[in-house]
Design brief:
alpha/beta; FAD/NAD(P)-binding domain; seven-stranded mixed β-sheet
């Protein structure tokens, strides 16, 4: 990297009390905060519990093979986020073609949908049923008072399309019935899409990229998303900040309504301010001396969906040309399959080998989560064979990676619990929450980074941004602020219209 990223004054400018801003968590949000503070010459310390930065968006490497924990597209209409990505990655930020399909009922459907393909694969009888179901919903459904995801989707796309393309995959991702997922989550994830817009895109294309998820290109670092966070870490340190790995936070100490000390790695650090991307449940635990019984109970009640990825190296050519394939097949447990070479040729070092990642959704402690790595590899190989994608005998080796608290869950009680925790955390004058788990909101990486940008502005520019409103209130949504539209990440939930879930 060149010196063009250096602050105008190379000497660190201390906060008024001379103490650093301490950032809890070295994922996209935490590193963005650290980077922007370091650029301004302010003392900053980023604490990361693991031995690698990137959080949910890191890239794992084994034997030269690189793989994502879900696959992460870099696409955004938030101009400042896009500018930051390019500033950090420069020529290493590749423009890649998007290709994905849905495996449904033993067939592959093009995704985004192609009208001719849909007619051929579904057949006239099923298409007629789906259209009549949609008309019934359009004429009689009462929109705006839905309580759960099933009601929200059925009222907009019809019960038949919901059953065919939303229900089984969504329940596989979340591990609970769709009646237990709040309607506002669906509204957030498939905002701006309708049956007619999806049908129009299927038959006439998606000119202008007005349908958010149907882009045909995205940016991607040459060596995976982890390269973004590794480079950002190098820049923070070059600019005088510090990123400390293997540094889990054990306790937060409070004095006079402020975070006075951060206890991490056997050391007590006195911060000027704290920016945290740690899960809300963890934050309440770190402040257990201050939390009353009601707040502690709210934190215990927050739920998360966990995730694991099994990367398989196979002898021979790539199994398919897609970046990823959605598996709408209840007979197997895998939810989606990545083809890492299609993301970037540099992810797979041997041209005579293929490398794919099979994604499984689970709860920490359940049968999948506790399965031995070698058994997970066997399961993934068997399911590849069962789907007809590759013979299990071609699998040479595999690697399993577990990702705890990957997705904050929107169950019936989450909103009330989050409000109680938010009020508690906002009582500390020098603490700000950012990122997906820091706000218990299913943000993508660009919006997580946007919360960090706003937090830094609150610290350095005397602004008063409501970080909980980013990607939640209309002031931050795409229809009123055109340059803050989100991009989509994995694992999406493909349907006749729009994916319902994503990760980074």
């Amino acid at each position: 990297m060149t010196d063009t990223l250096a602050p105008s004054d190379e000497q660190l400018v201390p906060d008024a009390d001379g103490r650093p801003t301490v950032v809890l968590g070295g994922g996209p949000a935490g590193l963005t905060a650290g980077y922007l503070l370091a650029k301004q010459g302010r003392p900053v310390l980023v604490l990361e519990a693991e031995d690698q930065v990137g959080g949910l968006a890191k890239t794992v490497e084994h034997d030269g093979y690189r793989f994502d924990l879900g696959g992460h597209r870099f696409f955004t209409k938030a101009k400042e986020v896009d500018a930051l990505w390019h500033e950090v990655m420069r020529e290493e930020f590749l423009l890649r073609p998007r290709m994905s399909r849905i495996y449904w009922n033993g067939k592959f459907l093009d995704y985004p949908l192609n009208g001719t393909d849909v007619i051929k694969k579904l057949g006239p009888i099923e298409l007629t049923r789906s259209f009549l179901s949609y008309l019934r919903a359009a004429l009689f459904a009462r929109k705006g008072n839905e309580q759960n995801l099933e009601e929200w989707v059925s009222n907009r796309f019809g019960k038949r399309l919901f059953t065919l393309f939303f229900k089984s995959y969504t329940e596989k991702v979340w591990g609970v019935p769709t009646t237990e997922i709040r309607a506002e989550w669906a509204a957030q994830r498939i905002k701006g899409l309708s049956f007619m817009s999806a049908a129009k895109a299927a038959f006439f294309g998606n000119k202008g990229n007005k349908v958010k998820s149907l882009i045909d290109q995205f940016h991607y670092p040459r060596f995976g998303p982890g390269q973004m966070w590794d480079t950002m870490t190098e820049e923070i340190e070059r600019l005088g900040g510090e990123v400390r790995l293997n540094a889990p936070v054990h306790k937060l100490h409070v004095e006079n309504g402020r975070i006075a000390e951060v206890e991490a790695g056997g050391e007590r650090i006195r911060p000027g301010a704290v920016i945290s991307s740690l899960p809300l449940r963890s934050m309440v635990g770190l402040l257990s001396d201050e939390a009353d019984a009601e707040v502690a109970e709210a934190a215990r009640g927050l739920r998360y969906r966990d995730f694991l990825s099994v990367a398989l190296v196979l002898d021979g050519e790539d199994l398919f040309p897609d970046n990823w394939i959605y598996i709408h097949e209840p007979s197997v447990e895998v939810g989606r399959i990545q083809n890492f070479r299609s993301w970037s040729p540099w992810m797979v070092p041997d041209p005579s080998k293929a490398c794919v990642g099979l994604e499984y959704f689970c709860f920490a402690g359940d049968e999948l989560w506790t399965m031995k790595d070698e058994d997970l590899v066997k399961l993934a190989a068997k399911e590849l064979d069962q789907l007809g994608l590759a013979s299990a005998e071609k699998v040479e080796r595999g690697y399993a990676v577990r990702v705890p608290k990957a997705y904050p869950m929107y169950d019936a009680d989450y909103a009330e619990r989050v409000e109680k925790i938010r009020a508690f955390l906002e009582s500390f004058g020098n603490l700000q929450q950012v990122g997906r788990n820091g706000l218990h909101r299913y943000n993508n990486s660009d919006h997580s980074m946007l919360t960090a940008m706003r937090a830094v502005e609150n610290l350095t520019s005397d602004t008063a941004h409501d970080l909980w409103a980013v990607n939640a209130e209309s002031v931050y949504h795409e229809e009123t602020v055109a340059d803050e539209q989100p991009y989509r990440e994995a694992p999406e939930t493909p349907a006749m219209a729009q994916p319902l879930a994503s990760k980074s």
